[in-house]
Design a protein that fits this description.
A: 350 residues; alpha/beta; ten-stranded mixed sheet; 18% strand; globular; B: two-stranded antiparallel sheet; two-stranded antiparallel sheet; 24 helices
Chain lengths: 350, 579
């Protein structure tokens, strides 16, 4: 008995001792000497270290703690922490999410150095903008060439193509109720047909062909990459990345134009705003890091000389369909309710 | 002399009362109070205006949402039926037959619980998905078979993977407490095996059976991990919460749906309480444990059954290992160990893995102590009946709270720097806020998230220890804590170890609550699995999952080794006649 107890206690003690500088680690290294800021981001995990290289080189005295999650989780976390915000800065989160956060009074307007370099449609027009964009992500189709051939499907080139009867049961798309990417496709269709009613008629027709609405923006593309379904409606960066990974994917940017949203930065409103947070926001739209963004994204907020990444259309700005971010944010609840009424309950599993 | 005895006794009772109240306060602060702010939201809109029952009415009136409720019920009923059935047969084989290779089957019995939910989904897709090994007949070598994974079927398979080990844990401990003398008596009366089964075995384990129904039902009713990835368009309540909270940041509606989720759990609690009234202690100090006899037919049927279950589970695990080694599934099947480096993953390398291991160790140690002590106070003593009932009720709630909801509630409560006192312009510092942003909050969230199953298995064990021990020690004027340390703990050690290992393996794989709570400095591997998969790096996600499974398996082996030594010693205590 005693032996066992001393074993358990021993294990606990060893466990604590083995933990790298146990105490600081348990308490999250709160008393560090460097200035440190907490950054919430929805940028992709594998891109972050590359981006941060120049920051770490130029500001060795600022420690950056990254919390990375999907757009929905980061936004929910921000809103839930409203009473005592933990983040100092938001970096690369959907502008539509930042509009919600701003609406709840969580954001402090700030004009970062070099703001004049940012294209006007990529920022909040206010003098001290609540959000400043870094890049844009646009909707695209991932088409699996091997599976398309197996099923005798031609490669769809436009939104209109997707409603052709041959694609019935072959298309997967992000669920707009759980994913921002899904919503931007839906919102874009509603804004780019002659009337909203036409938009809904289009979505009715599309729904006939959809096999699954998935709970994530990148999933449809991943499913296409693995051949689960031949066609995934997802976003451009994802499609191009999978092509470059060697999957038999063709990235299709629809003829009528893509839905889009901006990935943007913001300063969190709190009692003590750290100077380091502002330094970070200044850096985050600097030409140097923008060049890094431009290696993955076809459209960046700050113009760079980086050649277009492989796989994107040659004039990416032209690819953007008409989109009013403010309209999409204000009407979101109404649109999703209507969408759920039409497609969510009825859809039987295929 | 008289005075001293009296003093001791009243001191004993006073101490007990204080402890019970203390535990009550802890349980309230960790389970009930954090949930209040979120639940109040269900009566307000997103701008915090009070709107009464409007959310609840809106929910019921929306046909697509009520469909989710019916779907959740279907899933829960089907899953419960199969999980308890499989769990029962497997547990029966382990405890009541001479199953060949029993140690092996025992070690691997909880194997499906070691696999992170996302990895289960990856594995299922690789086997049963449109391009899956079975669907395509092993790359076209045999005729393929499509089970239509996405939707109801996929959810059921995934949920059974997750639920049957939980039923198994409870049923093994229930089947373990049996009295050989009853079976001997039945035999001398020439009772048929069926009759013995119906009149001795089943009544003996009715409490465990009841609890495993209760636990499987609620787990499958509230889980969102499985439906999220293989559910297709089959909506359930838990994915509705996900859509509301994560997709639309509509906390009010999310809270409303979680209240609906609590309904079956409260019903189950009420049924359970009524059921317990008729429960008499089945095992006395004089019981003799059951010794299974050889029966070639039964033993071989059991062997085939358990093997089939394990083949399926290990098959899914193998496909995860394969996924971690394959370059591009299913188009370029060349192998490499590249994916085990994790160097691309935000530069964290193995750090999340070690964080998770330590988090799980802490959860196992502190969680086990807390759970067992709570169960002991609730189960063994007479004072403060109402408060003990409340503690019991609170302890059964966490299982019905989806991790997502728990995580959010914990942010709202533990991130509050101070509470304002109503009607007074006065703020009280919130001491619990010190935990926020530390490893402590992760450990606490895990302890509470998995509290119910641990609590129930602790009470089940404590019930079987004869109250004689407490009575004898009382008459010998031994304070209760000495009885606790010298008798209760040694007797319950196998269960205590079981709870510890349950906490450990669950903390290794949990995502839903932790994803909201982990501090920037403490990345954990279950979250990095999700992130790696998000970034399209399925192979690295699978590699990390493989590591987690192997770690849990290693801990299980340590557990097997320790518990074998321990149960030898504790069985001497329970059955002194045997020696």
């Amino acid at each position: 008995m005693k032996k066992l107890f001393s074993f358990v206690m021993g294990a606990a003690v060893i466990g604590t001792a083995l933990a790298p500088s146990a105490n600081a680690w348990w308490w999250g290294k709160k008393g560090s000497e460097k200035a440190s800021i907490t950054v919430y981001t929805a940028l992709e995990d594998d891109q972050i270290p590359n981006y941060l290289k120049s920051f770490e080189r130029d500001y060795p005295n600022i420690e950056v703690n990254i919390v990375r999650d999907s757009t929905g989780i980061v936004t929910a976390k921000l809103l839930a922490e409203a009473e005592n915000p933990q983040a100092d800065v938001v970096w690369g989160l959907a502008a539509s999410s930042l509009l919600v956060a701003n609406d709840r009074g969580l954001i402090q307007g700030y004009a970062p150095k070099g703001l004049s370099n940012v294209k006007p449609s990529f920022r909040d027009p206010a003098k001290k903008p609540s959000w400043v964009g870094i890049d844009s992500w646009i909707s695209a189709f991932c088409v699996n060439k091997i599976e398309a051939q197996k099923n005798g499907l031609s490669i769809p080139k436009s939104w209109a193509d997707l409603t052709k009867p041959e694609y019935k049961g072959h298309i997967v798309m992000s669920n707009p109720a759980s994913s921002g990417t899904g919503y931007l496709s839906v919102a874009s269709r509603l804004q780019n047909l002659p009337s909203e009613e036409d938009g809904w008629n289009y979505l009715d027709a599309l729904h006939e062909n959809i096999a699954q609405y998935m709970h994530s923006g990148s999933k449809p593309c991943k499913a296409a990459g693995k051949g689960e379904y031949p066609i995934g409606v997802s976003f451009g960066y994802r499609a191009v990345k999978q092509v470059n990974m060697g999957q038999p994917i063709e990235a299709v940017f629809p003829k009528e134009g893509s839905g889009w949203d901006v990935e943007a930065n913001a300063l969190i409103k709190k009692d003590k705003i750290k100077p380091a947070a502002k330094t970070f926001l200044d850096w985050a739209i600097s030409p140097e890091v923008s060049r890094e963004y431009a290696k993955s994204f076809a459209i960046t907020a700050v113009e760079t000389d980086v050649p277009l990444p492989k796989g994107f259309p040659s004039n990416p700005e032209k690819q953007l369909a008409k989109n009013d971010l403010q309209w999409a944010a204000v009407n979101r609840e109404r649109i999703l309710a209507e969408w759920a009424k039409r497609y969510d309950g009825k859809s039987a599993p295929k | 002399m008289y005075f001293k005895k009296n003093f001791n006794k009243s001191f004993n009772i006073l101490l007990l009362r204080i402890l019970i109240i203390f535990v009550f306060i802890l349980v309230s602060f960790f389970i009930i109070i954090p949930l209040l702010p979120l639940f109040l939201k269900s009566f307000s809109d997103n701008k915090n205006n009070f709107i009464g029952l409007e959310n609840f009415i809106n929910y019921i009136q929306n046909p697509s949402l009520t469909q989710s409720f019916i779907n959740s019920l279907k899933v829960a009923i089907t899953t419960t039926f199969f999980s308890v059935l499989i769990g029962f047969i497997y547990a029966y084989a382990l405890t009541r037959t001479r199953l060949p290779l029993k140690k092996f089957f025992n070690t691997f019995s909880l194997f499906s619980l070691y696999i992170p939910p996302l990895a289960v989904a990856i594995g299922l897709i690789y086997i049963f998905g449109k391009q899956g090994l079975i669907t395509q007949g092993f790359f076209g070598t045999i005729p393929g078979f499509d089970i239509n994974l996405y939707g109801f079927n996929g959810i059921i398979i995934g949920e059974i993977f997750y639920c049957f080990p939980q039923a198994l844990i409870i049923l093994v401990s229930a089947l373990n407490l049996s009295d050989q003398r009853l079976y001997e008596a039945a035999e001398s009366l020439k009772a048929s095996p069926l009759r013995k089964f119906l009149t001795i075995t089943l009544p003996n384990i009715k409490y465990g059976l009841m609890n495993s129904f209760f636990i499987c039902f609620i787990l499958s009713f509230t889980d969102f991990g499985v439906p999220k990835v293989v559910g297709g368009n089959f909506n359930v309540l838990a994915t509705d919460i996900y859509k509301q909270v994560v997709g639309q940041q509509n906390f009010a509606m999310g809270a409303t749906i979680s209240i609906y989720l609590l309904v079956p759990s409260i019903l189950a609690f009420l049924i359970d309480k009524n059921f317990q009234k008729n429960e008499a202690s089945l095992i006395s100090g004089k019981s003799i444990p059951f010794k299974p006899r050889k029966n070639l037919i039964v033993d071989s049927i059991m062997f085939i059954f358990c093997s089939l279950i394990l083949i399926l589970v290990i098959g899914v695990f193998s496909s995860i290992v394969l996924a971690s080694l394959i370059k591009i599934w299913p188009y370029d099947i060349s192998l490499s160990l590249q994916n085990f480096r994790f160097s691309n993953v935000a530069g964290n390398g193995y750090e999340p893995y070690f964080n998770t291991v330590f988090m799980s160790i802490y959860t196992a140690i502190f969680g086990t102590i807390f759970v067992f002590f709570t169960a002991y106070l609730v189960e063994k003593f007479k004072p403060l009946k109402k408060i003990r009932m409340l503690i019991y009720f609170f302890s059964t709630l966490p299982i019905a709270i989806p991790g997502l909801v728990l995580g959010l509630s914990y942010i709202l409560f533990f991130n509050k720097p101070s509470f304002s006192v109503p009607f007074l312009d006065f703020q009280i510092f919130n001491p619990f806020s010190l935990l926020y942003g530390t490893m402590g909050i992760l450990v606490l969230a895990n302890i509470i998230h998995f509290f119910t199953v641990c609590f129930i298995s602790a009470t089940t064990t404590l019930k079987k220890i004869d109250k004689e021990f407490e009575e004898v020690s009382e008459s010998l004027k031994v304070p209760f804590y000495k009885t606790f340390l010298r008798i209760t703990i040694p007797l319950s050690l196998p269960t205590i170890l079981e709870i510890g290992s349950y906490y450990f393996v669950n903390s290794m794989i949990t995502v839903s609550a932790i994803i909201f709570l982990y501090p920037a400095k403490i990345p954990v591997s279950s979250v990095s699995i999700v992130n790696m998969d998000d970034a399209g790096d399925t192979a690295s996600a699978a590699a990390m999952s493989t590591l987690i499974v192997l770690t849990s398996l290693f801990v299980r082996l340590i557990y097997e080794f320790t518990s074998r030594n321990v149960s030898k010693k504790s069985s001497v205590w329970i059955n002194p006649l045997e020696t």
